Amino acid sequence: MGILKIYIRKLIEGKENSDNWGTFSPESPMDIFERSGLINRNIHKKAKKAFFESLVINFFVFLIVVVFSVYLISGQTPILHNIQGYIFHNDGAQVQVGTKVRINASVTGSFVTTQTSGPPGNTGFYASSINASDGENITITAFNATAFGRNTTALLNSPSITRANITMNNTRLGETDINITTVNNSIYDKFKVFNVTFNVTAIGGANSVNCNATIIINNENIINLTSNNKTKNIGNITLGNTNNSFFEVRALNEGTTTLNITSSCSSDGENFDNLFRESITLRVANQPPQLHAVQGFIFNIDNTTQVPSGTNVTINASVTGSFITTQTSGPPGNTGFYAGTINARDGELIIIYSQNGTYEGTRNITLVNAPGTTRVNVSLSNIKIDAPYFSNVIVEDDFSTPANEIDLTAAGTKLVNCSANISDFNGFSDINNVTAVFFDSNNASMNSVDDNNNHYTNNSCVFSNCVGTTCKVDCNFNIQYYANANASQSWLCNMTATDSSNNKGYGIDNTSINTLLGIEFSDSINFGTIGPSKVSNESVNNVTNRGNVRIDIRLDGYGGYDGDGNAMNCSNGQNISIGYEKYNLTASNLGTLTLTQFESFYKNLTDSLVNEAGFNLDYRKNDALNEANKQTYWRIYVPIGLPINVSCGGRINIGAMVDV
């Protein structure tokens, strides 16, 4: 009899459709604590790349039944180990500077990538360090465009230096490098048919034979193929050459989606460079905003005399929220002439406003179709109310580049700042207060009730740097991780200032909230007590959506290294095949099961990535209760012949992808 336990790392965070599986912290069966909380990774902003959670699983088989809630502590914490050596060609000569070297730790899952770069006469020398345990096996792989070599060795006790040389005596098989040539973030009109173009280059050490390209569109309601064929034959590619092709698609509905294209060939070998997939983001708009020229004259109250040069003019677009501020400055005899360009849609209503110390004037007009020029004159015919007014309204998170994009934090909050200059002709002390709302204009309005998905309010904005008539004002919002994703800049910050006479002024800026993929899984899978030729009890484990889009999941597993075909590698050299570990994502099957029942009710975990496209876990919608979770059901079979008192270990990778 024995006990099998699985210990799991919980959460990774990132952007849409990342295939990076991350790294593992080094742990062994004797040094694992029960943990809770989240592992967040701050990845490059707006890069619409996806990522997946890596879960470390350790199994134990014991003669004596142990209470499951007890966790053991090891005395050896993983530490840095120095590794160095030389890389040689097959003829014994040192390789060139810049040859790539990867080092993988077999138990902790840590890995590093470096290059050869030694002193003069030592071009093949490499040196690096890895966080791992004393005595842990590491695999060192060196490769160039046509060859590779490997060496597996055990780490010496730190701080000793582990030395390992490698001869690149293996020929690389074919690989492909795919490049999508359609421009990322392109915008297309609704109903437009267009091509997503790409090319595939044969790299590695051989020709690429019988190659195909497969496209996956994350939201087919926005963009979809004009045919049902998602895979295109691109033929044979001679090493170093490139084949070009395309998929024909149609823009269906307004919105943003990601497209992924993956290349594969019957001649493919090990993917050393991992360049066989690429993704881009495309947008569909009924009529995308574009620059419109607006010009005219500002007149005094008599509607005849032009105002002096330098009179302020503000142009606001009513739908897109764009606005610009300019000044009158025409040629001689045209002091009241103004001109500006605003990013808005054809036919959108704009408001032109101008003022001086005593009078103000406003005109509303619809934009003529670009590239035509919209011409409108304004008279300062109204006595000016001394209301406060805003300038330089900006809403951003902690990164200002690129502008107008917010990246949320998985299972947490992101501080979003809405700032501006607020002025009053009666002096800054006449401004009583400033409030602000931050809301998704596609799903809420300025006066909606606060909701973490679409509406936030700040009634206590902070003033600073007050001089003369002007102060800086900051309105902060803690935005939850499940706030609506929207790349069309529909999130608005609307600021309201009130003075001592209850006059009000308004300022606005808009931004987008990017897609966030986040997933949380149990800290451990506990299969209970089980002996050889028996099926374990069912272990129920929740998957929780910690992002802001509906998700499916991806699963695979392995023993010691990805693709080894094992669920567990055991200390006596006897392994448990990957097919003996199974899961059910829809239904529980309680009680004791025979092997036949087990195989009927559960699905095999495999050593290649499986997209569970029907998982369909929505993101959180309830502020009071997190309903965005689903149960999964796991069992394992221990084959006959596995001795007692043998420790075994393996891994399961579980990651999130945008629901397809």
- Mean pLDDT across the residues is 83
CA distance, first residue to last residue: 43 Å
In terms of per-residue confidence, which ranges show pLDDT below 50 for 5 or more consecutive residues? 1-75
Query: How many individual helices?
Result: 1
Specify the overall morphology.
Answer: elongated
The rounded Rg comes to 31 Å
Structural class: mainly beta
> Mind describing the biggest β-sheet?
7 strands, antiparallel
Task: Tell me roughly what share of residues is in helical segments.
Answer: under 10%
Give a count of the beta strands, DSSP E runs of length 2 or more. Answer: 51
Classify the beta-strand content into a percent band: over 45%
Task: Outline the structure in words.
This protein is mainly beta and 660 residues long. It is 1% helix and 52% strand. Strands 2, 40, 42, 43, 47, 48 and 50 form a seven-stranded antiparallel beta sheet that branches. The longest helix has 7 residues. The N terminus is likely disordered.
Can you describe this structure in just a few lines?
The protein is mostly beta strands.
